[in-house]
Amino acid sequence: MSDPLITTVAADSVAGDKGLKKGAIGLVGSVVVATASTAPAYSLAASLGFIVASGGGLLAGLKSPAIILVAFIPMYFIAQAYKELNEADPDCGTTFTWASRAFGSVTGWMGGWGIIIADIIVMANLAYIAGQYTFVFVGGFGLPEVAALSDDIWASTLVGVLWIVVMTSICYRGIEISARLQYGLLGFEMVLLLAFAVIAIVKVATGHGESYSVGFDLSWLNPFGMSFADAFAPAVLTAIFIYWGWDSAVAVNEETKDPGRTPGRAAVTSTLLLLGTYLLVTIATVSFAGVGTKGIGLGNPDNASDVFSTMAPEVFGGGGIGVVLQILFAATILTSASASTQTTILPTARTSLSMAAHKALPSHFARIHPRYLTPTWSTIGMGIVSIVFFLAFTLISPDLLEALIESLGLMIAFYYGLTGIACVWFYRNTLFRSVRNFVFRGLMPFLGFGFLAVVFVYGLISYSAVDWLQSADGENVTIFGVGAVGVVGVVGLLAGFVLMFVWWSRNPEFFRGKVIPRGAFLEGVTVDDANRVAD
To answer: Which terminus of the chain has a smaller tally of CB atoms within 10 A, N or C?
Structure first.
């Protein structure tokens, strides 16, 4: 039979297979890992300006909170798909494993590649931001010459490399150490974001805001009334990816207590936590700064790349406490980027570990440290590849590196969308047995897939426009006359096919469909039973 039927896997039968440390983190630790991976402070600082306006013209404007709500919907639907698939097969390969079971080895391998290439690219961005804000933070203590180094590309790059080395070593030392560090980093970040939002809202409500501050109105939560092509779609395209990263909780499933349930619950919980955080901070930011094009207004293109740095002095004030809060708030961008650097290494190492364990990559990547019970080659390899990638593209062309970073949306939409449709297909035999099955295993994942498919196509068209990305000199960045972001996004995904066929030619066993048999869900039949049927 080519289509065996498989069911929920007993947690212990999978969690111990690869040698990872079982039961190392619980629900709270998983939620922390998932939330930290999204880098909330940095994501908001770098994205809100582009959600509100673009090129000096308004996009979402006062309706930016509505865009945050809309962008949450597909992320929540895909999180439900992760939850349902993880219950059936709690494997740290996530999309790689599940897509292989649903659609076969080639699709599964490309799903794994989507995770790996997206994480390698974002590491360059996160490391650079961590390096840059290291100088900003230190310079805040009366050292302007140090702060000025944040504008030096190579100074920030070299410090960013050091951040990658530090975070890779922490990941190498164990999942528990990594989780404990995240408690502190994320806790600090969330407390400062909450303080910023509350102070801003209170100032506006009591009449102590700016002259252009705007009181909150419920209409801000209504997404209707915007032009789809000129405002809604571009704003959602930016907003949807500030939620990316919560799937890290599922990638460490084999090291989690109750691996069949806890990771999925953590993924869903983290998306809800992010929604609450993003909505509160967005409402506070829009209300205090307004959407004008002057001063700290969110429509001012000079503020777009970091709306918080221009707002913080006005929100916190210039007194002694205010200055301290400004310095601490600036530090949230540093802790946000550095924390996300660490939580990006974790899922990528486990994806490559799972691929190697299933013979889809060289066996070296499946090696586990005998003491720390963490992936060795996969963790160190992720760090090395990220550093080489970061340095190489910074050396070749900062504009090309920026194009790669902006193309992340295509990779994310690809593997998140693939997970959504894999859930529908995997559970196809049981979708109509209950309303719950239909909604959580069918409708939500399918709508999430459909939304992300539209995002992928719209994003590809937008990224391919010749004027989508411009250099510091104001020149269009293109490759063969096509927008560089679209080109490198497609090339990044297609590179996976090349690597896959190289490995296929050397070791075809995985691609014969025997290692991970293709199948569908049916109660009463185990994965082991399905494997025997496939054999």
So the answer is: C
Q: How far is residue 189's CA from residue 40's CA, in Å, rounded to a whole number?
A: 8
Distance CA 444, CA 44 (A): 26
* Alpha carbons 194 and 415: distance in angstroms, whole number: 32
Return the DSSP state at 522: -
Round to whole Å and give the CA distance between 430 and 150.
Answer: 55
CB atoms within 10 A of CB 70: 18
Average of pLDDT values for 462-489? 88
Nearest to 95 by CA among 419, 316, 375: 419
CA atoms within 13 A on the CB side of 28: 5
pLDDT at 522: 52
Distances (CA, A) of 66 to 233, 335, 455, 482: 12, 28, 17, 32
Give, for 137, the enclosing helix (H) or strand (E). helix 105-139
**CB hemisphere CA count around 125 (13 angstroms):** 23
Reading the block at residue 268, the tokens are 């869903």
Going by C-alpha positions, the residue among 5, 34, 83 that lies closest to residue 440 is 83
Determine contact, residues 291/298, Cβ cutoff 8 Å. yes
Nearest to 347 by CA among 329, 311, 374: 374
Per-residue model confidence as pLDDT tens digits over 76-94:
999 999 999 999 999 999 9
Three-state DSSP at 266 gives helix
Q: What is the DSSP letter of 8?
A: P
CA–CA separation, 248 vs 6, rounded Å?
A: 25
Q: What is the C-alpha separation between 315 and 190, in angstroms, rounded?
A: 17
**Residue that the structure tokens 């890992």 belong to:** 33
Average pLDDT over residues 288-316: 88
Q: What is the structure's pLDDT at 56?
A: 57
Instruction: State how far the Cα of 168 lies from the Cα of 148, in Å rounded to an integer.
Output: 28
261 vs 82: CA distance, rounded Å:
11
Count other Cβ atoms within 10 Å, centred on residue 502.
Answer: 9
The answer to pTM > 0.85 is yes
The region, left, alpha or beta by phi > 0 then psi within -120 to 50, assigned to residue 368 is: beta
SS3 of 470, please? strand
What gap in Å lies between CA 37 and CA 346, rounded to an integer? 10
